[in-house]
Design goal:
With 262 residues, the chain is mainly α. The chain has eleven helices and no strands.
Length: 262
């Protein structure tokens, strides 16, 4: 294909995509009866209102001990769900990876199970477990657990398959058993990546646990929902600020650990 024809066709596709996007946007505005002018003019007023109300007052600071207690509950839930799910996810990943699967038929079910758990959003899992456990810590824990389990399994399958098979083949040549190959070759090679992914899931689950807490009535999310619905915006803003500070602190610690192990 000549370069002129290629670039002309590429330009045509870009124009066609832009026209389709504009058409869909305009159709959505007509269907929803959205007032674009009013929406744009309300942005400065909304920003001004947020700046005025997003200031913790004296009553909010008096609630700081309770907020920190709920934050601790949220962080511990995220750490526990991520750690336990990673252990189970590693076990399933060993069955699904091409390098370590005990039988070719074990790979497809393991990968399929991981995809199902990973593709269902954490909020959907929270709603599902609300029917079983109600508004309790178990609901949030299992919602985070299943999402983490699916994600960790998937990334660990890919990590194990990317690991060099030379050490695995060398152990097999010496007559080493399946357990010895896993413990002496696969896990030591994947351990730094596994720790890195666990730290990543802890960071992600802390943010997700805040949203899950609004649904399940637990943790820091419950306090934010309570204060916001009672128009106690100073306390709600303090919850947001404390949560942001916790996420940034844990992210800094995670980055430090990653630099040490990778």
């Amino acid at each position: 294909m000549q370069p002129e024809v290629f670039f002309r066709r590429r330009r045509l596709y870009s124009i066609l995509f832009a026209l389709i996007l504009i058409g869909l946007t305009y159709s959505s505005i007509l269907i929803t009866q959205y007032d674009v002018v009013q929406g744009l003019t309300s942005v400065p007023r909304a920003f001004s209102w947020a700046v005025v109300n997003f200031i913790p007052d004296e009553r909010a600071w008096e609630r700081l001990p309770r907020i920190m207690e709920k934050l601790q509950e949220t962080v511990l839930m995220a750490v526990a769900s991520s750690s336990i799910a990673s252990v189970f996810g590693l076990g399933l990943a060993l069955l699904g990876a091409n390098t370590t699967r005990p039988h070719p038929w074990a790979s497809l079910p393991a990968r399929g199970l991981a995809s199902v758990f990973r593709n269902i959003d954490v909020s959907v899992w929270a709603l599902i477990f609300l029917f079983s456990f109600g508004q309790s810590g178990f609901t949030g824990f299992f919602a985070l657990f299943f999402v983490t389990f699916g994600f960790i399994t998937r990334v660990m399958v890919e990590t194990i398959d990317e690991v060099s098979t030379e050490s695995v083949e060398a152990l097999r040549a010496t007559g080493a058993g399946y357990t010895a190959i896993i413990s002496q070759s696969v896990i030591p090679s994947c351990l730094p990546q596994l720790i890195s992914w666990v730290l990543y899931m802890i960071e992600t689950n802390i943010r997700s646990a805040t949203l899950v807490g609004i649904l399940t009535g637990t943790g820091i999310g419950f306090l934010f929902d309570l204060y916001f619905k009672n128009f106690n915006y100073g306390s709600a803003s303090l919850v947001v600020l404390v949560t942001v500070a916790a996420v940034l602190l844990i992210e800094a610690i995670s980055n430090l650990i990653r630099r040490m192990i990778l």
